[in-house]
Amino acid sequence: MSSVSTPISERAARAALATFRAPADVHMSIAAVGAVETWQRLAAQHTSGPIAEYQPEADLRAAQLTAEFVLPGEDHWPGGLAALQEDCPLGLWVRGTGDPRQLSENAVAVTGGRAASQVGTACAAAVARELVGAGRTVVSMLSHGIDTAVQQTARAAGSPTLAVLPCGLDTCHPHNQAELMMAVLHRGGVAVSAYRPGTPASRNSLAYSAQLLAALSNPLVLVEPSADTMTVPLEAASAAAGIGCPVFHMTTTGPGNELSRRGKTRRLLRAIGARRTENAAALREALA
Length: 288
Description:
The chain is about 45% helix and about 10% strand. The chain is of the alpha/beta class. It has a 9-stranded mixed sheet with strand order 1-2-6-5-4-3-7-8-9, sandwiched between helices. β8, α12 (about 265-270) and β9 form a beta-alpha-beta unit. α1 (about 10-20) crosses α5 (about 55-65) and α7 (about 120-135) packs parallel to α13.
């Protein structure tokens, strides 16, 4: 049965739209006629297929058995997401024991390459310790390498963290980071995603999650980023610069840091005005 004539709530309409459309694609329509009318118009255009068969209220009830769907303006909504403007998520899937709004208010994103050197991971851990000591919240993805190092360090210090995932919160990305994700959830932290439970990670979801990472933090810190600019850390850095969030680049003596001095990565870091800092203590002083 089509959902066109079935009354639905604002929450269900936004969750449904987010399942099938990027925020920018429906931004103007929602501003003009609201989320419910926008969904009904979209559903009316489809007589068969996933959109025609979709039941917004039933699907929302099922999805919220796993994660809460928070709307813009609600108590737990992170205010920094407004900086994304038309790319602001239609809602945010949240799982954990913490408050994403409170955690994001003093959050610093720390992210970097997956194939990090020992020097790089040690640097990332030192950054996390300094941030926790300064009362800041660490936010990152759950990628291997730098992101794992900062999450584990904050966890060891008993500090709640934010984790941004490019998939539904019924699973984890990477898949073998489930233990780290559960540690985030059960220690006062929160995992957030723009994607409903059941959604796998993709190149598009990774790129969009990079924007969320930037908007949930101030500033963003890069440690040993990859030479490939089409990676989450460097996409997040570009997004951060685009919304006026400062970007710091930690220099290390590790071999992984040589990558950030090459070609496109070097030019990108210069173009976005990334500030170089040599150690965790210097970063903490810059943030004071």
